[in-house]
What we know:
Chain A is of the alpha+beta class. Chain A has helices at 52-71, 77-92, 135-146, 153-170, 205-216; strands at 4-9, 12-18, 21-23, 26-29, 35-39, 42-48, 100-108, 112-118, 124-126, 129-132, 178-184, 187-194. In chain A, the strands form 3 sheets. In chain A, strands 10-1-2-11-12 form a 5-stranded antiparallel β-sheet, covered by helices on one side. In chain B, α1 (46-67) crosses α2 and α3 packs antiparallel against α4 (149-165). The model of chain B has no long low-confidence stretch (mean pLDDT 96). Chain B has helices at 46-67, 73-85, 132-142, 149-165; strands spanning 2-4, 8-14, 17-19, 22-25, 31-35, 38-44, 94-101, 108-113, 119-122, 125-126, 174-180, 184-189. The chains are: A alpha+beta, B alpha+beta.
Amino acid sequence: MECLIGIRGKDFVLLASDSVAGRSVVAMKKDHDKMFQLSSKLLMAVSGEGGDTVQFAEYIAKNIQLYRMRNGYDLSTKAAASFTRRNLADYLRSSTPYMVNLLIGGHDDNDGADLYYMDYLGSMVNLPFAVHGYGSFFTLSIMDRYYKEDMTKEQTLALLQRCIDEIHERFIVNLNSFKVKIIDKDGIHVLKDIRPTTKPPVEAEGTQQQQQLMDTA
Amino acid sequence: MAMKGKNCVAIAADTRFGIQAQTVSTKFQKIFELGPRLYIGLAGLATDVQTVSERLKFRVNLYELRENRRVKPKTLLSVVSNLLYERRFGPYFVEPVIAGLDDVTSEPFVASLDLIGCPMVTEDFVVSGTCSEQMYGMCESVWSPDLDPDQLFEAISQALLNAADRDAVSGWGAVVHIIEKDKVTTRTLKARMD
């Protein structure tokens, strides 16, 4: 029931994740952050099996830091994503596979901004925009229609707002707040949480008539 | 799929990456270069496509370092067969297709394998994927022996496009490589994106 959204703009990547931490039918926490910082310009959003998400994310983050300590410089986004994929694929056929779906967004000086989509089996794709979870069924077509290459931050946030509004409109699970972060050449920036735009309630004509009849009776 | 021509071979694939009914990417690479005139195409589970291509590249690199020469297409067939059979009881879910020219004699070669490494060498064409039956029908109609590179390009493109159009989960873009003695031409086809 979790939703992760990633959009690549002009020299930046925007990652958004819903902030509901739930178990079965209970929403335990409403302001949960599902994104993990792998390095100064690498961010990973995870969803999936409880426990696996945090364990796998922390394992990858620590290994990325170890590389930096050993070699003196950060891994590129592509290399970090490939490392993550290799780990997921190796664990897949072990007795303890990780059931995590993730989005990795990063910026480096050679390739600019990059967004990688990875599912729990270890298939990795570089995409301009990506969504994990049931939310993908509602939002991917919106992105196909309105996404353009090299959008500004404001345009990308507007597109994200459209997607979140659609999820709120049609998805049966209430995801009413999304944590948003942007990765660009200056690092990772946390933006304000995004909520669906509230619309005034629509009253059908029939109900007005019924109300008048009940008042006069 | 892959086809033989006169002193040339062609290999083509669609570029869809999907999860059941949902298309995630329309630019997924399924054909990998293992030598200047040697290509392998992998159809099947996306994660295994990536894992097998990575593991295979590793083995081919080691081979070339040890033997100090390029790997022959027929030998590559055996390497892939071994890689897949090692996982006989927990296989990689891929169906590879190999196309290449022998780097000494420049003889064309096409072959395919099943998911546990059974090799099959043919004299005309090989196909693999969800729409293999449609592809067999198309290839049988458009292929004839000794096609030159341009005719081979037309043949393989029409075969792939029309077979993929009759399969709900295939398509969304296509790429074709024509491998000749002195060059490799890569073209992206304008396909139905549905």
